[in-house]
Predict the structure.
Amino acid sequence: MIYYLLLPFLSIVLVILQSTITDVIFSDRLVFELSLIVVIYTGFRLDLIRGSVLAFILGFVFDCVAGSVLGLFTFIYVVIFLFSFFASGRLAAEKIYIIALFSFFCAFLEDLMIILFYYLTFKFDVLMNIYFVILPKALIVGLFAPVFFYMMRRVEVFFYERTA
């Protein structure tokens, strides 16, 4: 029960931390999506109900902060969670290159869904930004995901190994 009570507050903290890191390091030129890595990680580690709730709340909080069409990132995060949840049984989630490639693919898939939505809805043609924005963003997410997975596994060992 405490999980569901703390989840909205921790989601807000994560999205604010993500926005702050983006502002400081990349000067608003590139968005570093730590929340996407969290959604991918929960797809590999949590059950379907808890992970779906986390993806939904994290996507909704990101929608509120990003100022995009309400529900866009919520839908995308739930789809990416479900994709990573069902792929986790078929992939070796302990291998670093698998985590990096899967995270790169999920970040690229997220950006393609956003581009497709904006093109179909508002007729925005942003395909020229694919080389300068989408690929570096997906590469950064893909390279940082194994580090995040390693840190989270260390945190899990610290909390659960000590109590056992």
